[in-house]
Amino acid sequence: MVKADNGIKITGKEPPKIGVYICWCGVNIGGVVDVPKLCDYARTLPNVALASEYKFMCSDIGQGMIMEDIKAGKVNRVVVSACSPRMHEETFRRTCEEGGLNKYLYEQANIREHCTWVTMNDVPGATRIAKDHIRMAVAKSGALKPLKVTTVKVEPATLVVGAGIAGINAALDLANSGYKVYLVEKSPTVGGHMAQLDKTFPTMDCSSCITTPKMSEVARNPNIELMTYSEVVSLDGYVGNFQVRIEKYPHYIDQNICTGCGHCIDICPVECANEFDLGMKPRKAIYLSFPQAVPGEYTIDMNHCIRCGICAEACPTSAVRYDDKPEYVDVKVGTIILATGFQPYDARRMGQYGFGRHKNVINALQMERLLSSYGPTEGKVKRPSDLKEPKSIVWVQCVGSREFTGKGRKYCSRVCCMYATKQARSYKEKHPDTQLFIFYIDLRAFGKGYEEFYNDTAKNYGIKFIRGRVAEILEGENDNVIIRAEDTTLQRPIELEVDMVVLSIGLEPREDIDDIARIFNVTATKTEDGFLMEAHPKLRPVDTLTDGIFVAGNVVGPKDIPDTVAQAKAAASSAATLMSQKEVEIIPYFATVLDHKCAGCKSCIGLCPFNAITFNEIESVAEINDILCKGCGTCVAACPSKAIVQNHFDDAQILPMIETAILKKPKQEEVEVE
After folding, report:
1. What is the CB-side half-sphere exposure of residue 206 using CA atoms within 13 A?
2. 0.70 surpassed by pTM
3. pLDDT tens sequence across 449-485
């Protein structure tokens, strides 16, 4: 038995008195169907005590109508026929609760997205479909049962995964709010891709000047436990009580006593490719990723180290540990923020551009490193073939983006137009006599100050913007590069020979995004493009469908630095809001195993996307963690013994909807509209 807030005792056994409330939603619904006739029809349905309509049921007046009817005892079940439950289900549940009714004695009929929006040119058909939805919602409503909300305590600590600019900002905001933060980064240093950039558009600020102070602040903050060269390997628990296991990779240098003096680097005889400089400059087997790296202690790359022992002899603090082993750390947190970022598109997949074959065809991230004052050429851009400064450069846009051949991604990566403009402008400032060309499909300058930045660059810097997609890139004499394209404005083919080509590569999901989604139980929230998906793109842009886990930055999709930082701060705010409540409500849509029916076949366990099902070896039955369970229904459908039932969606509630949809379909004459 559940007691409502106004003192009314509701056991779920009272005869249903259903109130049906139909929303016009302006012309979205009211402009397509005859709402008054829908009201008249609803009154004829079994157990319907009253039916009302209003222009906007989600307004204060509309919600007030529902509360008044509940308080007056006119209804003990509520059906709102309006928009998608994703939009306003929680709104009307709160309305029911404030009126004194258990909020799970509520059902929503979606007659906007599922009816009027897809049947706008067929008024009789739309009205018939609307009647179907209302009739099914009423059928389910009569079988609803009051559910009890479970609350769990929330651990006041957060795990932030990824220490790029998104993870850094999220961690700092939470730490400065007084919460414990575990910041885990897979690389030996923090900073992410932003640390590789030269300048940022449209202000042309030095990227490292912005990033480095934030990196240092993260390392010094007493509320942040920084774990670089580490990775989350497993996650158990639920919102408020996540149990996280973190593997800390061996540095082979004792990070506590290394002083970063650099003696070991000076004498190391082994050179290998430098990942931070994208292979354009070698590094030693013992290394620091870049001069401003945080933390500033060294790491040995054992894939290239020959164990000669020279570095151990030279180390003044005896910090070298050739026998270093991985370490595992277990932490408990209440919330998690995923900020694992993106990976640059591999231009080798676009074979017509010759990346990896032609010496002087590079990608845009390599150009960033060449422009950087602490890059492989100390800010002096040089051709890879002969180390001469190029006198003519072409930027090729949309490499891997807006690509429908299967070699790239269909979406726009958002940042490429602007970083190409920035790079060309930066190079032109130092080399005013050079010829620079940008081949584009459409220039997209969408952010604050971006259009002005593009216009100023095109007008005052002499950079030529050519509308047209490059067809192929060939190698010419003296390692020059030949561009074959079409100027779609002039409608004529173009062939240019230049010193160097920069491919403006797009942003795509990390290679390990599937592993990330699996470990953090957010597999069900991936987009077609492979990024993690928000719970709602407008109303819950940093939430996932797994309670307590939030997303920020490019793990959700391509975005620039301002949008990345804004989303990181939003994720930190959402996590802090949840933790400040000290306890959180769990929606009681979980499934339950009927022990007397369970055959112990375990077929449900492997199917659960949220790892909520375990097996009780003693009783030989499956058990479902009602906190981890999100009510997806996969186990219910798969159970051969029909031993699993789900709250709010059991057979007694779903079958009446199906029966009334099939057996009681209105005749054609019932839906005629004058």
Report:
1. 8
2. yes
3. 999 999 999 999 999 999 999 999 999 999 999 999 9
